[in-house]
Specification:
This protein is α+β, with helices and mostly antiparallel strands. Helices cover 30% and strands 23% of the residues. The strands form five sheets. Strands 1, 2, 9, 10, 11, 12, 19 and 20 form an eight-stranded mixed sheet that branches.
């Protein structure tokens, strides 16, 4: 086993919560290592969720969820502006279909007001259908939350990762923590081949947070994966709704929603099913059919022909039914950030700031960096440029004139930027999340082989070693000639 490296803080988990925590910690003069078991950041719940910035009316008053939701919503605009991540405060609606559900809406408004959510109001049938004419004409009322929004969760995670690395955090991919031993100076983490010493550990391991906590003898919570299946519609359906449309919530969650995305698609889902397997990302016929049936209750004009892909995400549902954020009872220098299910994406900026304050107190208030930079440079996006801007860019670098992904107008130059960025792409899905190459109607049918060739060339890999998402997901099995 190689000689161990020593750090002040080890963050386990590179989802959006772990990424924003690493970014916040990089404000201080401390040595940070950030450990991710996968080949890239954003490969867990972050890559497959509803992409909603929740207003905060659903969480139980005085819960950690409620506080972090409202604070995170307030912070989201500034964070996305600093990191150049697409964010749109489009507002959200919770639609009632019966008079009994109208009563539920009134209760949600009262709960939201107690949580500190601004500007909530009950819309009449006329106001509702003037705002969203494609909704079910029989819906009598809706809760309107103007502070609700939409964001790109994986882009937020990637941008935070780039900013954290630029500010000194060390990202270690393909490092699965298998054991954690307690030492006089803190902890010794191991993946079986290499040891890492850290004075403090932050457990942001998503659905595996309970497994990681048990490595230090903390058995105070259990994470049960809650599978949610989604359907993504083509951009041609982009105008079917303007707001994020929820149905009245159930004990299993906020129900099936339909929402625009920041990129112009429409997203429908999720289903909700508690499972045991922390790796089960299968879509099911029953799950996808249930989504289609449920969404027609909100938007009767939904058509399956407009679906371009389906996917599944796992929510880290804990048995406490609230976020678990704080020092472990087993060791005060081990901080759990667990059970971060919906509204975890919304809450992530607030969670990061709260955890950074905890760490600062434990480490006796380390000094802040005078040169800490909150800005992640804005990526070049050919599809968003004017013809004149494109012409000038291509004149500087011809790679931006070679279109690789026709559906999303992604150039070779943008893919090279994604690969060579801090915490850059190492596989096909990594390029996809950073540039949208492969996210269009053909789902990579045209550009996939070209992306593989570029990755092979730029990373110095044999083409058969290029993967879709790391591990054994190699795209090519061998050569025919």
């Amino acid at each position: 086993m190689s000689e161990q490296k020593k750090y002040d803080v080890a963050v386990i988990g590179a989802g959006v919560v772990g990424a924003l925590i690493a970014r916040e910690l990089s404000r201080s003069h401390i040595r940070i290592v950030w450990l991710e078991r996968c080949n890239d950041v954003a490969q867990g719940t972050t890559k497959a969720n509803s992409a909603i910035v929740h207003a905060g009316f659903d969480a139980k008053p005085h819960s950690v969820k409620a506080r972090m939701n409202v604070d995170g919503n307030r912070l989201m605009g500034q964070v996305c502006e600093e990191l150049h991540v697409p964010f749109h405060r489009n507002g959200s609606l919770v639609v009632a279909f019966t008079e009994e559900e109208v009563g539920t809406l009134k209760s949600l408004i009262a709960r939201g007001q107690e949580n500190g959510v601004p500007d909530l109001r009950l819309l009449s049938k006329e106001e509702l259908h003037a705002m969203e004419p494609n909704l079910n004409a029989d819906a009598p009322a809706a809760l309107y939350a103007p502070t609700g929004g939409i964001v790109s969760p994986y882009e937020l995670c990637i941008a935070a990762a780039e900013n954290a690395v630029t500010n000194g955090a060390e990202l270690r991919r393909n490092y699965e923590v298998k054991t954690i031993d307690t030492t006089e100076e803190g902890f010794l983490l191991s993946n079986g081949a290499e040891q890492i010493a850290a004075s403090l550990v932050i457990n942001a391991a998503g659905v595996y947070a309970d497994k990681v906590a048990r490595m230090i003898g903390d058995e105070t919570f259990t994470i049960k994966p809650r599978r949610g299946e989604y359907l993504l519609l083509d951009m041609s359906m982009g105008g079917v709704v303007d707001k994020t449309i929820f149905q009245c919530p159930s004990p299993m969650g906020k129900g099936v929603l339909i929402t625009p995305t920041v990129h112009g698609n429409v997203l429908i889902g999720p289903s909700a099913e508690d499972i045991e397997d922390k790796e089960d990302l299968d879509t099911t016929d029953a799950g996808l059919r249930s989504i289609q049936t449920a969404v027609k209750k909100s938007v009767p004009g939904f058509a399956i022909r407009d679906v371009i892909t389906s996917f599944t995400g796992l929510r880290a549902h804990d048995d406490k039914d609230d976020f678990i954020i704080g020092a472990s009872e087993a060791n005060p220098r081990f901080v759990n950030v667990a059970g971060i299910e919906s509204p975890g994406l919304t809450a992530a900026p607030a969670i990061a700031k709260y955890v950074a304050r905890l760490v600062s107190a434990i480490l006796d208030d380390p000094p802040k960096k005078a040169d800490w930079n909150p800005i992640r440079p804005e990526p070049l996006r050919l599809r968003e440029m004017t013809p004149a801007q494109r012409k000038a860019l291509i004149a500087q670098n011809a790679a931006y004139g070679r279109i690789i992904c026709r559906c999303e107008t992604v150039s070779e130059g943008e893919i090279l930027d994604a690969i060579h960025a801090p915490a850059g792409a190492r596989d096909i899905d990594g390029v996809k999340r950073r540039t949208r190459a492969g996210m269009g109607r053909c789902q990579g049918g045209f550009c996939g082989t070209k992306v593989l060739e570029i990755l092979s060339r730029e990373l110095g890999l044999d083409p058969t070693q290029v993967t879709k998402f790391g591990g054994e997901s190699r795209v090519l099995v061998g050569k025919t000639k």
